Amino acid sequence: MDPSLDHPAADGDVYYRSLVVLPGFSSNQVGAPPAPTPTPRTYQPTTFQPVTPVRILDSRNSVGNLNGAFRSNFPRTLQVTNRSDSPVPSNATAVTGVLGVLGATAWGSLYIGADPVAYPSTPSLRFPFGDDRANMVTTALSPDGTVSITYSSGTGVGSANVSFDVTGFFTPDTSGSTYHPLTPKRILDTRGQIGGLYGRFSSGAVKTLGVAGVAYTGVPAGATAVTGILGIIAASTWGNLFVGPDADPVSLALHFPFGDDRVNPVTVPLTTGGGFNIKFVGANSRASTYVTFDITGYFTADASGMKYTPLALPTRILDSRYGTGGVTGPFTPHAPQEFMVAGAANSPVPTGAAAVTGTLGIIGSNTWGNLYIGPASTPVPPLFALNFPRADDRVTTVFVDLSNNGSDQGGLWPTYVGPSSGSRANVSFDVTGYFTGATS
């Protein structure tokens, strides 16, 4: 999994490369059109507007005017703004949404970004063969209001259908909401009575989780949206979770096979009553599952929080396989290691940034396990950002605070937890944007 042309020996993979000498043509371009070199650009700080989730891409049925499956390493451009079926205005510079893969013919990854990239090194979603997956993303838009999506097959050939549901957008003004990160906290666990929803969700059931104005959540009344980690535990069949402010949510937040307790990040708008709705759909009418939700932050419709600055290109600032970020070699259980984010030489995040968005990844795990990330060393994490079985390289999007108990230190600490002392896994982190104070 996750081959790297820059570090073939370290991956343990063997690469054979042919020499093709044609004027103005590289052997790297054989089999795929040359993608334009991404244009470096900077973005202004923005505020957030949550929206009821809307599907603006489904390549199975021409939603988004991208009809038919994606071919490996052929980037395709999706218009996001200036569409009658999209809530995103022309002045938006970034969006949040749910990126999904459907019916892939080979294992691989999806990338989403402002510019076309034929061979991306910072995946937004990884998946094995036969596993339809969805992942929340936060991505910058191009000046034309577009994003580009690339499917990369693990076998070099193949195809996959792709979906994208927009859940919010950022504009470079003060018209929207600002962000308040929280120390992650579990506010729903239906195995007990956390969150006021007790017992298993039955297939087709829609339940409302109260969030804003509920004392134990830390989210004040009037909040417009929340960020968090949605999870399923002990589902009786494969299934899907849908979330949103709508009475019958249609935006897929989490897809899972049978026997795979899975978590996924969400950015979800709140209803006027301060909650959001969760719907479980299983393989049959008898299907059921437990559900969890860990709150990581919230947005308010004022200037009291932080503004968001998207990055034109995701930047890898941690990869323990190669020493990127100053961490070398696999993580061992309950041994957190720090990498610097704000002000680091290999990071586009400036000194003084208070929180970041990014893609946290697990690579080459020799057992099943869990992954946590936060601003302080936490050998025994109470919650996790990523769960994974053995040999399943996964990535997940995180909104994560850089402040350690009010001290702005600018670093993050991943913690890997495996079932035994011999468990090992490499970890990566690709930063996609950062938050700064409202006056920045």
Average of per-residue pLDDT values: 89
Order of helices and strands: HEEEEEEEEEEEEEEEEEEEEEEEEEEEE
What CATH architecture of the largest domain would you give? Sandwich
Number of helices: 1
The CATH topology of the largest domain corresponds to Jelly Rolls
Identify the overall geometry: globular
Helix content: under 10%
Number of strands: 28
Q: How many angstroms separate the termini?
A: 41 Å
Radius of gyration: 21 Å
Strand content is over 45%
Number of domains: 3
**What is the makeup of the main sheet?**
5 strands, antiparallel
Would you state the CATH class of the largest domain? Mainly Beta
SS content category: mainly beta
Low-confidence stretches: 1-36
Give a description of the structure:
The model is unreliable at 1-36 (pLDDT under 50). The protein has three domains: 8-171, Sandwich (Jelly Rolls), CATH 2.60.120; 178-300, Sandwich (Jelly Rolls); 306-437, Jelly Rolls. The strands form seven sheets. Strands 1, 2, 4, 7 and 9 form a five-stranded antiparallel β-sheet that branches. The protein is globular, with a radius of gyration of 21 Å. The longest helix has 4 residues, at 8-11. It has one helix spanning 8-11, and strands at 47-58, 70-71, 76-79, 94-102, 108-113, 125-127, 133-140, 146-153, 159-171, 178-189, 201-202, 206-210, 223-233, 239-244, 252-256, 263-269, 275-282, 288-300, 306-319, 339-340, 355-363, 369-374, 386-388, 394-401, 403-404, 407-408, 411-417, 426-437. With 440 residues, it is mainly beta. It is built from one helix and 28 strands.
